[in-house]
Amino acid sequence: MTALKDSPLVLGFETSCDETGVGIVRGNTLLADAVASSVDEHARFGGVVPEVASRAHLEAMVPTVQRALADAGVTLADIDAIAVTAGPGLAGALLVGAAAAKAYALALDKPIYGVNHLAAHICVDQLEHGPLPEGCVAMLVSGGHSSLLFVPDVTGDVQPLGQTIDDAAGEAFDKVARVLGLGFPGGPLIDKAAREGDPEAIAFPRGLTGPRDAPLDFSFSGLKTSVARWVERRERAGEKIPLADVAASFQEAVVDVLTRKAILACKENGADHLLIGGGVAANSRLRVLAEERATKAGIRVRVPRPNLCTDNGAMVAALGSELVRRGRAPSHLDFPSDSSQSVVDVVVR
Amino acid sequence: MLLLAFDTATPAITVALHDGTHVLAESTTVDARRTGELLAPGITAVLTAAGRKPGELTGVAVGVGPGPFTGLRVGLVTARALGDALGIPIHGVCTLDVVAYQTKTEEPFAVATDARRKEVYWAQYTDRFTRSTEPDVAHPSLISERLTGLPVAGEGAVLYPEAFPKAIGPRHPSAGALAELTIRRLQSDPDSLMFPEPLYLRRPDAVEPGTRKRVSTS
Question: How confident is the prediction for chain B on average, in pLDDT?
Fold first, then answer.
């Protein structure tokens, strides 16, 4: 029993958006991270279509479980516990993962944890950089989320500090990429285009940075509109659009605000560690600027490698493993999926 | 034989356990919004009621719709995951066929279930074992013309009495009947049992973007 509690073998499921993720961890050791993405099916629509994502989850589910087991070199009989994203996310997509995880738990007679997607994004860093320091600040930035969180205990005490009041940071990347005709998803494409550009070429607005604005909330909708106006003005005048400069200046506006507020959140909460997760954490300029500003402020930055930043099943397994080790009660088989689950609810019972 | 059967293609979340001779236990709850919450506990409930364990199951039968997508997928992914975890075969059966089997009617009839958006999923039958049209989705008034007064089973007949004046039971499929029908087919016509692929009958609502929307007013 002690061995099980110290390093449980946990199977994790993630289907909150367009990635079917199945991960396997033993304690804090990553054994498998199998992901099937439907992103190519969404590209022509310029964004994730929920029904297309849900259909793809159903088809990918069992093959992805089998791939994860083969990668980890374990069998279902070895699994000690199961964890699955209960929310937040796309309602129909979440249900596919939850139903699959419940079926595996029921068949194997193992405990199941319905967990919070955002807490999983935080906990995944334990697989790479070891146990989380007590009381760190986490910044989660993706196509669906932009949140600053204070994390005394990832298994039960996650406190929201601020979030976007309109678009998520990743959403802004997608929309601006569309304005620039770069394609979908926009994050990596803008990152690449920006490398050749001047981040100070155009002074795009920094949302919610005025003296009366909420200091830890974000807004990216105005920035997106501002970029579109700038581009349209030049198009009307028949001028060539300096793609690299627009991409670099837009990207700088986003990461400037993100890092500035993240450092402020650390200072206000006495945290000496900043953890960054979510798909936008793969952005090269965000990593550089966060490191630069954190170092100046005496704060250590932790960012998992890119494929653990984007949605995956290993992060859910990592949180499940931590919940087992801390002796937290599992969920009941009838736990609901919740598309708007609050970050304070780490486990749904 | 210990066959677990369930269907989630209608508002009825119905689960049954069958030993090859009898239905050992059955559990049905009508609540389309809670399929994801009710199905797994329904399965443990029938196993517990019959004093059996998941490891004793020899097969799974699942209704493949047509039905509203979200609930339908809960049933299908559950069946596929159970089949994988227990290493047992899974059998797909058209949900309309289950309702037809339950009618106990000898004359020709149709089955219509709720497809939402003022439409029904439907098919025609020459008797309770024999479907004569492919499952389809359509507005009740269009089907009504083709049926010329035939009796209609399923919730569609209850929802649209003007189009389907001759309503017959049942309103929803029962997993006990699904289990019985599956066992009959396993014995007489195993090829008619399909790998559980969902019968969506509708494409996802998604439109490819046209030209970019302008944000400037001039």
Answer: 95
